[in-house]
Automatic annotation (TrEMBL):
Record gene name: pfkA
Cofactor(s), by name: Mg(2+)
Species of provenance: Roseibacillus persicicus
Protein name: 6-phosphofructokinase
Superkingdom as given in the UniProt entry: Bacteria
SUPFAM superfamilies in the record: Phosphofructokinase
InterPro entries per the UniProt record, alphabetical: ATP_PFK, ATP_PFK_prok-type, Phosphofructokinase_CS, Phosphofructokinase_dom, PKF_sf
PROSITE patterns the record matches: PHOSPHOFRUCTOKINASE
Gene3D superfamilies in the cross-refs: 3.40.50.450, Phosphofructokinase domain
Domain Phosphofructokinase positions: 4-276
Pathway: Carbohydrate degradation; glycolysis; D-glyceraldehyde 3-phosphate and glycerone phosphate from D-glucose: step 3/4
Amino acid sequence: MSERVAIMTSGGDSAGMNPAIKCATDYAIANGMEPYLVYDGLRGLIDDKIKKAEPEDVSGILHRGGTVLRSSRSKRFFDYDMRAVAYKNLKDKGIGKLVVIGGDGSFNALNQFHADFDIPFAGVPATIDNDIPGTDYCLGVDTALNVILNSVDSIRDTATSFSRAFVIEVMGRHCGYLAMVSSLACGAEICLVPEIDYDLDQMGERMRLEKENGRTYLIAIVAEGVKMGDYLTRWIGDTLKMDARLTVLGHTQRGGSPTVRDRIMAYHFATNAIDSLQRGETSRIMTYQDGVYGTTSVREVAEGKAVMGEKLLKLCSPLCR
Ligand SMILES: Nc1ncnc2c1ncn2[C@@H]1O[C@H](COP(=O)(O)OP(=O)(O)OP(=O)(O)O)[C@@H](O)[C@H]1O
Ligand SMILES: O=P(O)(O)OC[C@H]1O[C@](O)(CO)[C@@H](O)[C@@H]1O
Ligand SMILES: [Mg+2]
């Protein structure tokens, strides 16, 4: 009997999940495995929403955002008895391996599941937060950055027309990657992120001088994780005496058709995940670091912390003061 592998998505959806689902399914079949699909993420694992993959399940999905397998954040998966139900569901179908496409929390969940029942799995990093230790890139990040870029470019049109300041909040639960990269790409004047200490006094002085030299509008990008959107908007009004508005981009950043980068990265990560399982590895997370594809241990992901590149931090530092 060919080896059965279940493919699932978990945590916040991200563009690139669908290409990863399709590639993992097609590549598993091409390599003699029998793929199954888990619907609704970890919740579906407990509720037995698991079915054998048919080619039509994954056809015509490459260009679609989100995840056709749907996703969830499951409280029940923290409970050992519920994880035991999930394991039994897999075992009853003869499924002995898993490909999990998700973020750091999903890999923590699988680390626990593996410790409980010794079921081998391979992780495909997919989260717009880009906060998985050991990899420079997670699926969905490029698409989210392009959504942000388009939004900020549009906001700049009205900001210049009305001589206003705009504070734009971008996602990132604890991580400022989206804020930093979009600040550089969009030419923001101010950027606030959890990774860099900010200095409002210095920032006020810098903006005051810029205003004296003819600046009429400004763009500030803040990461969700610093929780400064409201405060900064009021501060700009009070300190810089500018008409200021706050725009929270919210879940728009999670949607959209995956970019070329997210589709191609999905091919690499998904095929590498199947290769990892076929090599007999039991708990590796796919990575892309310094231009090289590889894997890291789930323990490193569970115990580590994502580190932002020195160069990126250096480029953004002047925008924080
Ligand atoms: N230690 C753990 N034990 C059991 N389950 C866990 C554990 N940590 C996380 N989970 C499960 O994994 C789910 C996914 O994690 P989380 O919600 O943090 O999203 P994520 O995978 O990090 O993606 P994103 O950050 O992009 O939304 C959680 O909702 C929870 O059900
Ligand atoms: O969709 P939810 O559950 O509101 O979660 C939002 C969170 O998920 C993320 O979008 C990551 O997927 C974070 O940036 C954000 O904090
Ligand atoms: Mg996460």
